[in-house]
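Record minuted for everyone:
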Amino acid sequence: MKNSLNSLTLLLPLFFLFSCSAPQTAVEETPPTVSKNTGTDISATAALSLKEEFQPTADKDTNANSQSCNNEQVKLTSDFAAGRMDECKRTGEYEYSITLVPENTPINSSPWYAFKIQAKQVTDITITMQVQGDKHRYPPKISRDGNKSWQLQDYQLKGERLIMKVKASPQSVTIAAQEIINNQYYVDWAEELTVQSAFTQSILGLSTQGRPIYKIESRDENSNEWVVILGRQHPPEVTGALALFPFVETLLSESELSKYFLRKYNVLVIPNINPDGVHAGNWRSNANGMDLNRDWNDFSQIETQLINDYLKGLVAQGQKIKFAVDFHSTKNDIFYTMPVDYGVESSYFVRHWLGELDRQMPNFNVVLRPGNNPNLGVSKQYFSDQFGVHAITYEMGDNTDRTKIKRIAFKSANILMINMLSETDHDKE
């Protein structure tokens, strides 16, 4: 097992190797992807124009954090779902300054931004971005086709200022920290996943601001064991979402392995736990300014309460939680696990699973970081303490090649199924 953390922080465009091939799953639609080639496009999920069963208290098409910088020739706006550029001002004829401000402090360093640029005629503009009390984490991406495909936007770092020159035109472009995957994207993706299958999408409950929190389920009446998949506790962690999609698609595919797996195990997917934070473009928190992945002890927030209540309800019905994966992003690819001697069942299961992933992907450095933090309030610890089972935090690097993310997800999901179906004694190393 390769246990050393790669210390290289991929910040400069030179290190971006993103590409756009389709995932190796039965589901054809793929999330928006970044490419170095400005001519490379991919399919976006078809717009289904679904009307949500519940309307949030905040209008879903506007954003409380929206700002605008307008003059007669050029306008910069963030009045859309997931848009954010907290403070914007015009500093010259075609020069603009944007300041990114966290929703609260102290906070994890994940400054999110997303805004649109449009001009009456082709105009070269300069944008300078800085972060209040922090520094930049995400290099800018640009979409020229309505957020269907993304390319890296050229920029310079001068101290803590990020400077980019953009050619504005009558055709609106979007600049964002990462690919924009908003709340509606999840609904559309789940519809595609469930439309011609026995899988169901339903509303688990409502967020703090009244937005639906959806769950997807594959349930066999002859099975009582559950695999739980969680995602998007932290809004900017888009590469976690880019891993969750193909991972879930692989588990719920039409492959013979998947069919066999789904006869033995039920699957619960809650892909977007924090829809209010996603909508607002928050750095970390839900609408109450709380980090949801620190609330799995106290359950002070409705989002974590809903999941805890649902899982306990399953157990009360004689069901069993068997394993859980929580998808996130950080600067490097890493799997946070529980220690083998912590006392959960099948002590070596995760080590066997990820050890096989390490063997099958020699060019991918599988890094395991076991940890036990009972007072931290993270989901991984919650599953182990509450249900006595393994759980992991599956982290993809902010700048990891997007095709590589898909390959890792496809391979890790398949190996997971094989390991959970095998007769291997996971209590032995």
Notes: The chain is about 25% helix and 25% strand. The two ends are 13 Å apart (CA to CA). The domain at 181-421 is CATH 3.40.630.10 (Aminopeptidase).
